[in-house]
Amino acid sequence: MSEPILDVRNLKTYFYTARGMVRAVDDVSFTLNKGESLGIAGESGCGKSTLAYSLIRLVPPPGKITGGQIIFKGKNVLEMSEEEFRREVRWKGISMVFQGAMNALNPVYTVGDQIAEVLMLHQGYSKKEALETAAKMLQMVGIDPKRLKSYPHELSGGMKQRVVIAMALALNPPIVIADEPTTALDVVVQAQIMNLLKRLKKELGLSIILISHDLSLIAEIADKIAIMYGGEIIEYGPSEAIYNRPMHPYTIGLLGSIPRLHGELRDLTWIPGFPPDLANPPPGCRFMPRCPKAFNKCSEKPPLVEVEPGHYVKCWLYAKG
User: Fold this and answer.
1) Tens digit of pLDDT for each residue in 31-55?
2) Using CA atoms, how far apart are residues 130 and 125, in angstroms rounded to an integer?
C-alpha cells in the first residue's frame, strides 16, 4: 500500500464578508498517497480553488482557515508559523500551478529570471547557478533553454503554461497542485499539457492534485477523484468507481452531461437550477433544491457513507436505516 503524504481532515475555510460568512470549504477531508494523483471536480464556485489555496496557506483576505488539519509528512502545517511554513513547505513540499498562466507571469521580467528567483530565495543559489538550473527546468518541460531570455508576451499560451509548471517543479516538491492547468488553451495544447503532467508524474514520482470542472480531462490522469459541491466533498473514491459506478445524484448528473465517443448512444442530460449561495446554504443536503431524488430526510445534513471499499458518498440514499 502506498505511503500517505498528505492527509486533510475536516478542513474549513470561510470568507467573512459584509453579506455574512461564506462557507467556501466546509468540513473537507481526503488523503493523497505518494506518487498518486487526485482529481477534484465540480462546478465553478464550489470551492475547488479555495481548497487549493488553503493547502498552501495563501487564502486571500477576507478568507481564513477556521478549522481542521492539513497533515503533510506527519506534521500539521496549520500549526507552523508563517515563516516556518514558507521555509519548509511552500514550494519545497507543496507547490502550485496557478490558474490562468497568461496572468501568472510578471510581464516585465524574463521567464529565466522568474524561475531563477525561486532558486535564489529558497536555495541560496547564485544568479549564475540559478539560471543554469532554470535552463534545465525549461528543457524538462519541453521548452528550448534559449527561451530563458524571453519575456512572457513572446511566448504562446501553451509555452507560458509550461513555464509555470517548471517554476512549480523548481525545488523538487513531492506534491504539485495544478489548478485548471489547461484554461484558455486549445484542445491540442491541452493534450500536450496533460501528457506533460503524466510524464512528469511517472519520471519524478510526483503526487498531483488536479483541479478542474472537466471530468473528461481528469480521467486522463487521476487515480482518485473527489467531487465537490457547495464547499463540500460529496463523493470520493477510486476513479474507476466514480466513472463506472457513480452514486451521488450530482455526480450522475455531471457524468451524464459529458458526450461519449464509445459505448451505447444516449441523450445528454443537464442539472437544472443554480449552485447554492454559500453565505446562506440550504439546510441539510446542499444539493437538495436541484436533486431529482430528494425526499424529506434530505432537509437534515447527510452522513458520509462508505458504499464500497474506499468509495464514499455524502447522501441519505445510501445511509442504512
Assistant:
1) 999 999 999 999 988 999 999 999 9
2) 6
Angle (nearest 5°) at CA 170 between 127 and 29: 145
Q: Quote the pTM value.
A: 0.92
Q: SS3 letters for the chain?
A: CCCEEEEEEEEEEEEEECCEEEEEEEEEEEEEECCCEEEEECCCCCCHHHHHHHHCCCCCCCEEEEEEEEEECCEEHHHCCHHHHHHHCECCCEEEECCCHHHHCCCCCCHHHHHHHHHHHHHCCCHHHHHHHHHHHHHHCCCCHHHHHCCHHHCCHHHHHHHHHHHHHCCCCCEEEEECCCCCCCHHHHHHHHHHHHHHHHHHCCEEEEEECCHHHHCCCCCEEEEEECCEEEEEEEHHHHHHCCCCHHHHHHHHCCCCCCCCCCCCCCCCCCCCCCCCCCCCCCCHHHCCCCCHHHHCCCCEEEEECCEEEECHHHCCC
Distance between CA atoms of 192 and 187, rounded to whole angstroms? 9
Q: What is the pLDDT of residues 63-90, one digit of tens each?
A: 999 999 999 999 999 999 999 999 999 9
